[in-house]
Amino acid sequence: MRLVAAHARAATLELARHPAYVVPTLSLPAVFFLLFALPVTGGDPAARMAGFAGFAAIGVAFFQFGVGIAADRSSPWESYLRSLPLAAWVRLTARALSAAAFAAAAAGILCAVAVLTTPVSLPPAGWAGLAAALAAGTAPFALLGTALGYWAPPRAALPLANLLYLLLSYAGGLWLEPARLPAAVARVSPWLPTRALSDALRAGAAGAWPWRPWAALAAHGALFALLAALGYRRDEGRRYR
User: Fold this and answer.
1) pTM attached to this predicted model
2) What 8-state DSSP symbol labels residue 180?
3) Is the dihedral of CA 87, 90, 93, 95 positive or negative?
4) CA terminus-to-terminus distance, the chain
5) Which candidate, 170, 181, 218, places its Cα nearest to that of 196?
6) Which residue segment(s) compose the domain that 165 sits in?
């Protein structure tokens, strides 16, 4: 575990020294909330906050995993690390711990903005449920980001991550309650992992844990894990024969 902690600390410090990563990661979800959620009237403000908290958390998964891994693959330092007798799970676990810190900060800032600008009111159990749902529900997206990082070319990873991040967030109902989505989008929405996350987060904030969204997240997570493993083996086979 000391190796995991050392790699997690190094990854976190490296990213924290780059304002170009830290500022957008922490502030963009709150800006989107002010632009798209604040003007909305009616509905449940706590549900909107929960959806945008998920938007904040999965952004870290897409960019720290997807874009980060794709960029690392082209660096000489990555080639050196791959040559060391270090299990792949150590570095992936360290990356996950580092990402969890940034995801918690981004979601925390988003929730603070929501509390200050909207009539959000959650009991302590609601906040605890939302935090637990965020921690568990965003794990499949870390696997999706990992798969993207190993399958996408380094130059294509950033635009692909942006496209997937924004489209899945909107169509999955993280920005708007699913009932407010256009009819064409609403037909696709139930099949998306972000819709399962949206339902799980809104239920968690209300103190409920329905099985259907969690089963959908587990199924998507298994698929993303398979894609990530295949991508890792493909990349390793191409570069380290």
Assistant:
1) 0.90
2) G
3) negative
4) 29
5) 218
6) 2-239
CA distances 128 to 2, 147, 227, 229, Å, are 29, 30, 32, 32
Using CB atoms within 10 Å of the CB of residue 200, give its burial: 0 to 12 exposed, 13 to 18 middle, 19+ buried.
Answer: buried
Count Cβ atoms within 10 A of the Cβ of residue 41 and give its class: 0-12 exposed, 13-18 middle, 19 or more buried.
exposed
What number of H helices and E strands is found in the chain?
12, 0
Per-residue pLDDT of the chain (241 residues; tens, 9 = 90+): 777 787 678 778 888 888 888 888 899 999 999 998 888 877 789 999 999 999 999 999 899 888 888 887 777 666 666 666 667 777 778 888 888 899 999 999 999 999 999 998 899 999 999 999 999 999 999 999 999 998 988 889 999 999 999 999 999 999 988 888 999 999 999 999 999 999 999 999 998 999 999 999 999 999 999 999 898 888 765 655 5
Q: What values do phi and psi take at 17, rounded to 5?
A: -85, 0
Cβ-contact 51, 137 below 8 angstroms: no
Is-contact 194 55, C-beta < 8 A?
Answer: no
How many domains does one find in the chain? 1
Angle among Cα 95, 8, 161 to the nearest 5 degrees reads: 25
How many Å apart are CA 189 and CA 179, to the nearest integer?
11
